[in-house]
Amino acid sequence: MKNTAGILTLMAAVFLLLGQPFYTLDETEQAIITQFGRPVGDAVTEAGLHVKVPFIQTVNYFPKNLLAWDSDPGQVPTQDKTFIWVDAFARWYIKDPLTFYKTVNNVQAAQKKLDDILDATIYNFVTSNHLIEVVRSSNRLLRTENISTAGLPDKVDDHGNIKLGREAMTRGILEQAAPKLEKFGIELVDIRIKRINYVEEVLKKVYERMIAERKQISEKFRSEGKGESKKIQGDQEKELRRIQSEAYRTVEEIKGKADAEATRIYAEAFNRDPEFYSFVMSLDIYKRALGEDTRIILSTNSDFFKYLKELKQAP
Predict the structure, then answer these.
(1) Contact at 8 Å (CB) between 134 and 88?
(2) Span 67-117, pLDDT tens digits
């Protein structure tokens, strides 16, 4: 009897060890119990130690926290026929584990469902709106008027007033996609457009236009600079002529005063001794008029030789 009881105890221990009747859930997990592949009971969402039927029942674990979804960037044409690359992301969680298990079974399959639904919804919204609606969220004026349309194709300029905007568009994508995911036990929390860029062909044209605009702006600055330079040079020349005119006037005034003073001195000297003054002036004229090779024919009665005729040869 003792041996039989020991054997039964050992068999029970082996049964419990191999059958694993207990399982635990942490705060980030929830589970569905299946029996022969079919769900049994409601979802287990409380963290802690739980019991299942060994060998018969299986625990299927699912995350309880937020999960990430990232789209594969792809080309999408806007309503104004501009092809752009759209890259988006979303956050979701498993709201109804039982429905989730019955419809998609696992997270990998759920990600594929999200790809199909969210990519299609984003595509529909982008193709139904102009590029400006996807890029901007308001009609707020940009700081520099030259940047307001820089990079946008000419065909977009006619649709500059935003009616929907990027924020409203992402809300619309969320509102449209969320009900489609509820039947899979998925709650879509948020979706955002992470990055938008032109395709290579359009991007090249955008860069060329931006370069042309910057060249136009630089030429405008150069033209304004040249105009300002000419204005400064004109002001400098005007100021130089004014200074030269004032200097010439000052010089002439000084010369006039000097000539007047010299004339006064000459007159005063002449009045003191007219004969001596005439003699000195005549000598000066002789010095300037008669050189070594100078020949002049004058009458002996000329006043020019007045003082020469009075010169007597020394004995």
Answers:
(1) no
(2) 999 988 888 888 888 888 899 999 999 999 999 999 999 999 999 999 999
Q: Which of 188, 38, 224 is nearest to 111 (CA)?
A: 188
Coil/strand/helix, residue 26: coil
CA distance 14 to 6: 12
Angle between helices 107-127 and 166-182 (to 10 degrees): 140
Considering the entire predicted model, what is its pTM?
Answer: 0.57
Nearest CA to 27 out of 69, 68, 59, 61 is that of: 61
CB 24 within 8 Å of CB 48:
yes
Percent of the chain with pLDDT over 70: 80
**Residue keyed to tokens 């705060």:** 27
> How many residues are there in the chain?
315
d(CA 124, CA 114): 15
CATH number for the 67-198 domain, one of 1.20.1090.10, 3.10.100.10, 3.40.605.10, 3.30.479.30? 3.30.479.30
Note whether 196 and 202 are within 8 A (CB): no
Q: What is the 3-state secondary structure (H, E, C) of 72-84?
A: CCEEEECCCCCEE
pLDDT per residue over 14-71, tens digit each? 455 555 788 899 999 999 999 988 898 888 989 889 988 888 889 999 999 999 999 8
CA distance to 4, 16, 152, per residue, from 155 (Å): 91, 74, 8
Tell me the average pLDDT of the chain: 81
Going from N- to C-terminal start, the domains of the chain cover 2-62, 67-198
Rounded-to-integer distance, Cα 225 and Cα 219, Å: 9
Structure tokens at 303: 């006043």
Residue 314: predicted pLDDT = 46
Structure tokens at 52: 């299942």
